[in-house]
Specification:
The chain is mainly alpha-helical. Helix content is 69%, strand content 0%. It starts with 7 loop residues before the first helix and ends in a 9-residue tail after the last helix. The model has no long low-confidence stretch (mean pLDDT 93).
């Protein structure tokens, strides 16, 4: 973590801003805007890009992916511009929390995959790109979106250490733990061999 030098009130402000940005349910907004119905009534009921893809619209899924990543990037960049690095990390973490537990949807949000990748890119682009590459390699190798996400998040702290970004290691560990908790059902299905593969109908 960076040194906490900003006033507490300022950090709280950026936590609130980050949370509000992160809590925008873009998966729900995009599917409704495109006339695809309520994504919560489709597939797993999740509002993330993977479930949006189950509507049959790759465009909607891509838009959701980019917007969910973008809201974390926006939170970090805005806090970095108008405050400092400690506020940037807090705003980014709050954006991730907002995505997973949005107040607008009774705290039932997404699993945070795109958001955590966007957050890592904004905090340290080499670590973020390494995490994205981990997801892509795992997804192509194993054909499980959830397993790719678990590996990308789980290896992010190691990538941060290897790439000399010790300031974000603790945050990466905490976010990975939350993401693993959000994927508890997926982990159970992976162990049972019942988790659907990418592209499976």
């Amino acid at each position: 973590m960076p040194l906490m030098e900003s006033p507490t009130a300022l950090l709280i402000l950026w936590a609130v801003i980050g949370y509000l940005l992160g809590s925008i349910p873009f998966g729900l907004v995009v599917t409704r805007a495109m006339g695809l119905g309520d994504v919560r009534a489709i597939g797993s009921g999740n509002i993330g890009a993977t479930n949006v893809l189950r509507t049959g619209s790759k465009g909607a899924a891509l838009a959701t992916l980019l917007l969910d990543a973008g809201k974390a990037i926006a939170a970090v960049i805005l806090a970095r511009i108008f405050a400092a690095e400690d506020a940037a990390q807090i705003a980014g973490a709050a954006a991730f929390a907002g995505h997973c537990y949005p107040v607008w949807l009774r705290f039932r949000g997404g699993k945070g995959v795109a958001t955590i990748l966007g957050l890592l890119i904004a905090l340290s682009w080499p670590v973020g790109l390494a995490a994205c590459a981990t997801w892509l390699v795992a997804a192509f190798a194993f054909r499980y979106s959830s397993l790719a996400a678990l590996l990308a998040a789980g290896l992010a702290p190691a990538w941060a250490l290897l790439l000399g970004e010790g300031r974000i290691v603790l945050l990466a560990v905490v976010l990975a733990a939350i993401l693993y908790a959000r994927h508890a059902a997926n982990i159970a299905r992976l162990r049972a061999g019942t988790e659907p593969r990418i592209g499976a109908k």
